[in-house]
């Protein structure tokens, strides 16, 4: 293993949802509050970016459409189409969501192994600690109906850490709020896209950092960012902590495997406003780790 390497001093306010697209050999990710979708290729010194009219929280590629994405924004799930070279992105609503309270948006999300988009919502005022977060599924059936399906997994304050085992039969979900910091595993019905048999996978109240965004490796191990602790943790499928890798920033947000052999773990991070950053000047950057294990290519959205 090697130390974390800064690949781009992006200075993102909240860098999230990294996705490696192998066909382009490029990393995409979001800066949530700025509504930016960004793209970077190894060897390039800068990133392209596209501006969206809403906050962009999570996204997944659209199968067979290299310039199209599915994404969770503020008030629903959207199709996002990127123009060549950056600039403005075109969005089209697929399913709007009636949030439980004002001031909510989508947060973490990705596709299951069958190509259904699964994403959670949260109240942006985390200090309020309101358990109004939900997790939604949006697949081919939901697309025909024009609505997202509430998976009824609450109460949740800040749903996060969504990931699926290599065979797609286990779904992971965390609540990253300081009052929770739990990670759960569910049995996942790959035919219907329904999670059940919820059980505690890991209690991070006893570990450094709050559970944030996650990724799965070829061994079925679960990698999750330890927000506030500057770490990325690897848990074995039985919930045992295997290792923790350090980063030069306090708030890693989400990780994703990429690179030619999917053996690079890319990590996005948060650059908090209004605090002294002299001890973490690279906050908001994108980092790369070589953890000695490869990951899985992310599933893309299948609309049919």
Write up what this structure looks like.
- The structure is a single chain.
- With about 300 residues, the protein is mainly β.
- The protein has one domain: TolB, C-terminal domain (Neuraminidase, 6 Propeller), CATH 2.120.10.
- The chain is about 0% helix and about 50% strand.
- It has one helix at about 140-145, and strands spanning about 5-10, 15-20, 25-30, 35-40, 50, 60, 65-70, 75-80, 85-90, 90-95, 105-110, 115-125, 135-140, 150, 160-165, 170-175, 180-190, 195-205, 210-215, 220-225, 230-235, 240-245, 250-260, 265-270, 285-290.
- The N and C termini lie far apart (about 40 Å).
- The mean pLDDT is about 95.
Give the SSE map.
Layout: E1 5-8, E2 15-21, E3 26-31, E4 36-40, E5 48-51, E6 58-62, E7 65-72, E8 76-81, E9 87-88, E10 90-96, E11 104-111, E12 117-123, E13 135-138, H1 140-145, E14 149-150, E15 159-164, E16 170-175, E17 182-189, E18 194-203, E19 210-216, E20 222-227, E21 231-235, E22 241-246, E23 252-258, E24 264-269, E25 286-289
Parallel strand pairs: 5-9
Antiparallel strand pairs: 1-25, 2-3, 3-4, 4-5, 6-7, 7-8, 8-10, 11-12, 12-13, 13-14, 15-16, 16-17, 17-18, 19-20, 20-21, 21-22, 23-24, 24-25
């Amino acid at each position: 293993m090697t130390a974390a390497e800064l690949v781009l001093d992006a200075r993102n306010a909240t860098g999230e949802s990294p996705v490696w697209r192998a066909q382009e050999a490029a990393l995409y990710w979001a800066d949530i509050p700025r509504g930016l979708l960004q793209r970077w290729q190894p060897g390039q010194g800068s990133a392209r970016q596209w501006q969206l009219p809403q906050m962009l929280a999570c996204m997944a590629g659209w199968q067979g459409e290299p310039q199209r994405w599915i994404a969770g924004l503020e008030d629903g799930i959207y199709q996002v189409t990127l123009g060549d070279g950056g600039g403005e992105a075109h969005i089209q609503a697929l399913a709007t969501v009636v949030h439980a309270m004002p001031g909510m948006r989508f947060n973490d999300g990705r596709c299951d192994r069958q190509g259904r988009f699964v994403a959670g919502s949260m109240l942006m005022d985390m200090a309020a600690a309101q358990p109004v977060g939900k997790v939604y599924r949006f697949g081919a059936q939901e697309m025909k109906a024009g609505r997202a399906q509430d998976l009824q997994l609450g109460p949740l304050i800040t749903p996060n850490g969504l990931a699926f085992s290599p065979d797609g039969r286990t779904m992971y979900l965390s609540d990253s709020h300081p009052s929770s910091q739990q990670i759960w595993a569910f049995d996942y019905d790959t035919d219907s896209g329904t999670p059940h048999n919820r059980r505690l996978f890991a209690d991070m109240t006893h570990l450094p950092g709050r559970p944030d965004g996650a990724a799965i490796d070829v061994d079925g191990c679960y990698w999750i960012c330890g927000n506030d602790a500057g770490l990325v943790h690897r848990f074995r499928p039985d919930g045992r902590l295997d290792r923790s890798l350090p980063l030069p920033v306090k708030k890693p947000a989400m990780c994703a495997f990429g690179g030619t052999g999917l053996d690079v773990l890319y990590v996005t991070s948060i650059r908090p406003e209004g605090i002294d950053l002299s001890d973490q000047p690279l906050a908001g950057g994108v980092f790369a780790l070589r953890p000695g294990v490869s990951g899985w290519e992310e599933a893309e959205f299948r609309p049919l």
